[in-house]
Design a protein that fits this description.
Distance between the termini: 30 Å
Structural class: alpha+beta
Shape: globular
Number of domains: 1
Number of strands: 5
Amino acid sequence: MSSWEKVIPSIPLVPGVPVIPVVAGCGTKSVPVLGSGRGGHTIKVMTEKDGPLTTKATNWRVDLNNPLGFMYALMWLYNEYANDCYWPPLFDGRVDVMRGDYNDRDISKLAHAMRDVATKREKA
Protein backbone atom coordinates (compact mmCIF):
# COMPACT_ATOMS: atom_id res chain seq x y z
CA MET A 1 0.00 0.00 0.00
CA SER A 2 1.37 3.41 -1.00
CA SER A 3 1.67 6.15 1.59
CA TRP A 4 -1.03 8.23 -0.15
CA GLU A 5 -3.45 5.30 0.12
CA LYS A 6 -3.25 5.56 3.91
CA VAL A 7 -4.36 9.22 3.99
CA ILE A 8 -6.73 9.71 1.05
CA PRO A 9 -10.33 10.14 2.26
CA SER A 10 -13.43 8.58 0.83
CA ILE A 11 -15.11 11.02 -1.57
CA PRO A 12 -18.27 10.76 -3.69
CA LEU A 13 -17.69 8.51 -6.69
CA VAL A 14 -19.25 8.54 -10.15
CA PRO A 15 -19.25 5.99 -12.98
CA GLY A 16 -15.96 5.78 -14.83
CA VAL A 17 -13.73 6.86 -11.96
CA PRO A 18 -10.90 4.37 -11.34
CA VAL A 19 -10.80 3.19 -7.74
CA ILE A 20 -8.67 0.95 -5.54
CA PRO A 21 -9.92 -1.17 -2.64
CA VAL A 22 -8.97 -0.30 0.93
CA VAL A 23 -10.45 -3.44 2.53
CA ALA A 24 -9.58 -7.10 2.16
CA GLY A 25 -11.74 -9.20 -0.11
CA CYS A 26 -12.17 -6.64 -2.89
CA GLY A 27 -9.02 -7.53 -4.80
CA THR A 28 -5.93 -5.39 -5.18
CA LYS A 29 -6.20 -3.84 -8.64
CA SER A 30 -7.64 -0.57 -9.82
CA VAL A 31 -11.13 -0.96 -11.30
CA PRO A 32 -13.64 1.52 -12.74
CA VAL A 33 -16.84 2.44 -10.96
CA LEU A 34 -19.79 1.13 -12.98
CA GLY A 35 -22.50 2.90 -11.01
CA SER A 36 -23.66 4.01 -7.60
CA GLY A 37 -26.72 3.43 -5.48
CA ARG A 38 -28.43 4.26 -2.20
CA GLY A 39 -27.52 7.92 -2.38
CA GLY A 40 -23.87 7.21 -3.11
CA HIS A 41 -23.46 4.85 -0.16
CA THR A 42 -22.85 1.86 -2.44
CA ILE A 43 -21.02 1.49 -5.73
CA LYS A 44 -20.78 -1.22 -8.36
CA VAL A 45 -17.38 -2.17 -9.71
CA MET A 46 -16.16 -4.87 -12.07
CA THR A 47 -13.69 -7.09 -10.23
CA GLU A 48 -11.43 -9.53 -12.01
CA LYS A 49 -12.24 -12.40 -9.65
CA ASP A 50 -15.96 -11.96 -8.91
CA GLY A 51 -17.21 -9.89 -11.83
CA PRO A 52 -19.73 -7.12 -10.99
CA LEU A 53 -19.67 -6.37 -7.29
CA THR A 54 -21.89 -4.01 -5.32
CA THR A 55 -20.18 -2.86 -2.15
CA LYS A 56 -19.90 0.05 0.26
CA ALA A 57 -18.48 3.14 -1.40
CA THR A 58 -16.24 3.68 1.64
CA ASN A 59 -14.41 0.43 0.77
CA TRP A 60 -12.84 2.23 -2.20
CA ARG A 61 -10.65 5.26 -2.86
CA VAL A 62 -9.95 7.16 -6.04
CA ASP A 63 -6.86 5.71 -7.74
CA LEU A 64 -4.43 8.62 -7.86
CA ASN A 65 -1.92 6.56 -9.85
CA ASN A 66 -4.39 6.63 -12.75
CA PRO A 67 -4.49 9.98 -14.61
CA LEU A 68 -8.32 9.89 -14.73
CA GLY A 69 -8.47 9.30 -10.98
CA PHE A 70 -5.91 12.01 -10.30
CA MET A 71 -7.85 14.59 -12.33
CA TYR A 72 -11.19 13.54 -10.78
CA ALA A 73 -9.70 13.95 -7.29
CA LEU A 74 -8.19 17.32 -8.23
CA MET A 75 -11.55 18.54 -9.58
CA TRP A 76 -13.27 17.33 -6.38
CA LEU A 77 -10.72 19.21 -4.27
CA TYR A 78 -11.08 22.43 -6.26
CA ASN A 79 -14.87 22.15 -6.05
CA GLU A 80 -14.60 21.92 -2.26
CA TYR A 81 -12.77 25.27 -2.31
CA ALA A 82 -15.17 26.89 -4.81
CA ASN A 83 -16.83 29.08 -2.16
CA ASP A 84 -13.58 30.37 -0.66
CA CYS A 85 -12.61 33.92 -1.59
CA TYR A 86 -9.00 32.93 -2.17
CA TRP A 87 -7.32 29.60 -2.41
CA PRO A 88 -3.97 29.20 -4.17
CA PRO A 89 -3.85 26.40 -6.75
CA LEU A 90 -2.40 23.22 -5.27
CA PHE A 91 0.30 22.86 -7.92
CA ASP A 92 0.85 26.58 -8.57
CA GLY A 93 -0.60 26.33 -12.07
CA ARG A 94 1.97 23.79 -13.26
CA VAL A 95 0.91 22.79 -16.75
CA ASP A 96 2.78 19.48 -16.56
CA VAL A 97 0.45 18.25 -13.81
CA MET A 98 -2.60 19.24 -15.82
CA ARG A 99 -1.23 17.19 -18.74
CA GLY A 100 -0.91 14.09 -16.55
CA ASP A 101 2.83 14.41 -15.94
CA TYR A 102 2.95 14.20 -12.16
CA ASN A 103 5.07 12.29 -9.69
CA ASP A 104 4.73 10.49 -6.35
CA ARG A 105 5.30 13.75 -4.46
CA ASP A 106 2.41 15.39 -6.37
CA ILE A 107 0.16 12.40 -5.61
CA SER A 108 1.01 12.60 -1.92
CA LYS A 109 0.38 16.35 -1.89
CA LEU A 110 -3.06 15.86 -3.45
CA ALA A 111 -4.00 13.05 -1.04
CA HIS A 112 -2.98 15.13 1.98
CA ALA A 113 -4.88 18.19 0.72
CA MET A 114 -7.97 16.00 0.19
CA ARG A 115 -7.65 14.64 3.74
CA ASP A 116 -7.36 18.17 5.17
CA VAL A 117 -10.50 19.31 3.33
CA ALA A 118 -12.46 16.21 4.32
CA THR A 119 -11.43 16.64 7.96
CA LYS A 120 -12.52 20.29 7.98
CA ARG A 121 -15.85 19.33 6.38
CA GLU A 122 -16.47 16.66 9.05
CA LYS A 123 -15.81 19.17 11.83
CA ALA A 124 -18.15 21.78 10.34
